[in-house]
Structure formats: C-alpha cells, structure tokens
UniProtKB/TrEMBL annotation:
The keyword Transport applies. Residues 427-439 have a biased composition (Polar residues). Residues 417-439 are annotated as: Disordered. It comes from Amycolatopsis heterodermiae. It is a multi-pass membrane protein. SUPFAM superfamilies: MFS general substrate transporter. Keywords: Cell membrane, Membrane, Transmembrane, Transmembrane helix, Transport. Its main location: membrane. It is found in: Cell membrane. Residues 9-413 form the Major facilitator superfamily (MFS) profile domain. Pfam families: MFS_1. The chain crosses the membrane at residues 47-70, 82-103, 109-126, 147-169, 181-200, 234-255, 267-288, 295-313, 319-338, 359-382, 388-408. This is MFS transporter.
Length: 439
C-alpha cells in the first residue's frame, strides 16, 4: 500500500458520501417543505405533512434489505464494487424524483412513484456508508483509524450543506413557482455531482486487508454465528441517528408549518451547524484515537439528549438568536461527537470477513428506526406545546444509544488485522491484541 492510499481512500469516502447524502437530504428538505402540497394535496395540512414525512421514512425502511444484499456483495467481492454501484443507483433515483408528475396531474400514481424511488434511494444508502467506512478503515494507519474513517461522516455533513444551501434560493421563490418547478431543480442537479463521484471511485484500489482475507461464501452466516451480539449492539447504538432526522426534518417542519417561522433562516441553521461539524468531526475523531472510541461517543449521545430540550423550546418561542446558537451547538458540536466516532466504533467490532455486512446490517436497522423518528414525533403532536414530548422521546433514544455503546469493547489499540477477535479474559480492553475468530 502506498503512503498516499489512506488519504485517497478518505477523499473517495468524503466525496462519495457528500454526493450520496446531498441526494438523500434534498429529499428530506423537500418532504418537510413541499411534498405535502405537491403529492398529498387531498389530505388536511396536518395529515399531508405526516404522509410526506412518512415517505422520508420509507427510504430508511428499505435500508435493511439493501444492507443484507450489498453487505454480502461487499464482503464477497470487494468494497469498491459496492461504492460504485450505490453512487449510480442513488443518482438515478434522485434525478427521477425531479421528473415525477404531481398529484394534480396523475392522481394517486404520483405518490406511488415517489415511494418507489425513495425505496431505491434507501437501497443505495444501505451500502454507501458501510462500504466507505470499511474502505477507509482498512486503508488507515494504525492508531489513526478514527480520524481517517471520520471523513466519511464529514462527507455526509458536506452533503447536507449542499442539500440545504441549494434549497435556500429555491425556498425563496414565490409559492406558485416553488410548487410547480422550483422544487425539481435540486434533484436534477444531482446528475452532475454523481458523475464526479463515479470518476473518483473508479480509480480507488481495493483494501489490502480485504485482499488478504479468506472470503466466506456466505458472509452473513459467519456474521450472525460469530458476531450476533455486536450486530445487536450496533443496531441499538445507531438509533442515535434519530437526532439527525429530528433536527433536519421534524424541527424544520415544526418551525415553518407549526410556529410560522421563515423558511430561509431555518435552512441557514442547518447550513451553519454542518459547517461547524466539518471541523468538529475530524477533531473529535482524533481525540477518540487518543482516549478511545467509547468516551467520545457516549459524551456526544448524552449531550444531544440534553440540548434537544432548549433547542425545540427556542423554536417554540420564535427566538432566531437562540435557535441559531443552540442548533449549532447541538448538531454542529454535540452530534459530531457521535458522527466522528461511530465509523471506527462500529467497524472495529467486526473482522474483515464480515465488516461491511456487520456495519451495513447493524447501522441500517438502527437507521430505519431513526428514519421514522420524524413520523413518530409528528404523531406525538405537531402543536406548539408538543415540543416537550418530542424532546423526551429524543432524549430517551440518546440514553439508550449511550448504554449500548458502553457495553462495547474498546478497540482503539487493537491492530487492524486483528479486529473482530475475542479478547483474552486476563487482558485489559485498552491494550488487547487478539486474533480474528471467524468460522
């Protein structure tokens, strides 16, 4: 492996994730602001909003299916194939959303087609992060795995910045223009950025760890035989992504549709928080390389659980100054403690034979819960006074995720080739060096 390969792998993960999640999050923004009127106009405003947010969640429901399929492909045939495929599938599905007819044109067929394309987006996203994380982790230098894998999530934040920023001029359009043609522009723009990501990923080498691995014929069988507890642990910990979906989708809908705040300032909260996260994620990941994955991840979870209360309260009273400050601290700093560390925390639980499957299946089952979090909290209530119930729900998810991470083994000093093994009973977690145990 050349000295530049870790940087190339991190760059490929960053750019690919930025492009992939640009596509994914423009859907979330459109679901919060537009789709209730374009695809569900026959429903009451509250029901239309609930249905639009549910289509956002449908993409997460498809992720576990994609995780099993793409996890098998990645652990059987290589990480690179998965990364190229997911990028192209997401690009097609996203561009096609921008071409859909509306409910006024074709009736119920419009939301049906929307759901189908959202399912394809979910299938793609199922393999994207797990593939990018596996690629960057297996190329990374020892003792710097958290730092290099964190670029996958920095790319995700960049994608959210692009998705939110492109909606700023679109959201400022007159209502009639926004609902007819304006909302389609961000979806069509994905074609150009997907092409860039495809060219970059085609030039990336397969990881040396995978090249030396005795590939299993059925990686999922090995995964559930030897790593079922770690899969369950990742599933529960990954529900912390509910913070992201509630912040980016529910809070936006709550602010604009319930409280009556302006769309543009609320979109800017997301942009600024993600800009801060671009710096915070690698810094906090670097800290995890020095002190361990668990302390940083758990602290991030608990901080999110506390900060969601004042953030939603600041929206309810219409204080732009407070919601900007609290939104940036919550999503730009506290949640970055989670995002900067989970790629290494989860990935290091598994051996190379099953790493992509383990990460994909574990995270996507947890993310499926997170994807429906905006719908769950919308069912709790979308009124001004319902923010407390939403905050309690979010905080409970944060605490459960922190507990799941606390039960994990600390792996920041375990060599990459020996990850996924069983720790000797007499060796402290922080210094253990073990052999891989796979059947």
């Amino acid at each position: 492996m050349t000295a530049s390969m870790p940087r190339k792998a991190a760059l490929a993960a960053w750019i690919g994730s930025a492009l992939e999640y640009y596509d994914f999050f423009i859907y979330g923004t459109a679901a919060a602001l537009v789709f209730n009127k374009v695809f569900f106009p026959a429903s009451s405003p509250a029901t239309g909003t609930l249905l639009a947010l549910a289509t956002f969640g449908v993409g997460y429901a498809a992720r576990p299916v994609g995780a099993f399929i793409l996890g098998h492909v990645g652990d059987r045939f290589g990480r690179k194939r998965v990364l190229v495929f997911t990028l192209l599938l997401m690009g097609f599905a996203t561009f096609a959303v921008g071409c859909l007819p509306t409910y006024a044109t074709v009736g119920v067929l419009a939301p049906v087609l929307l759901v189908v394309l959202r399912l394809l987006q979910g299938l793609s996203a199922a393999g994207e992060q797990a593939g990018a994380n596996s690629m960057s982790l297996e190329h990374a230098p020892e003792r710097r795995r958290a730092y290099f894998t964190s670029f996958t999530l920095s790319g995700t934040q960049a994608g959210q910045i692009l998705a939110t920023a492109i909606f700023l001029p679109v959201a400022a359009l007159p209502q009639a223009d926004l609902l007819t043609w304006g909302w389609r522009i961000p979806f069509w723009c994905s074609a150009a950025v997907v092409l860039v990501g495809f060219v970059i990923r085609r030039k990336l080498d397969e990881t040396p760890v995978f090249a030396r691995t005795d590939v299993a014929k059925l990686p999922v069988a090995v995964l559930f035989r030897n790593h079922w507890a770690d899969v369950l642990r990742v599933v529960v910990a990954a529900t912390i992504a509910s913070v992201s979906t509630i912040f980016t989708v529910f809070a936006l809908s709550y602010a604009v549709n319930t409280i009556g705040l302006a769309r543009t300032p609320m979109l800017w909260v997301g942009v600024l928080a993600n800009i801060v996260a671009l710096a915070a994620i690698p810094l906090l990941a670097g800290l995890a390389d020095r002190v361990g994955r668990k302390p940083v991840f758990i602290t991030g979870c608990l901080a999110c659980g506390v900060l969601i209360f004042p953030y939603l309260w600041s929206i309810s009273i219409g204080s732009y100054a407070l919601l900007f400050v609290l939104g940036i601290v919550l999503f730009g700093v506290a949640y970055s403690g989670v995002n900067g560390v989970w790629p290494s925390l989860y990935g290091e639980m598994f051996s190379a034979r099953v790493r992509l499957s383990g990460m994909a299946i574990g995270t996507q089952l947890g993310f499926a819960v997170a994807g429906f979090a905006p719908s769950v909290v919308a069912a709790i209530g979308t009124g001004k006074s319902d923010r407390l119930g939403v905050s309690i729900f979010t905080a409970a998810v944060c605490v459960v995720a922190a507990i799941a991470a606390a039960t994990a083994r600390e792996t920041y000093r375990v060599p990459t080739a020996e990850l996924g093994g069983k720790p000797p009973a007499s060796t402290p977690e922080s210094t253990m060096v073990t052999s891989t145990v796979d059947g």
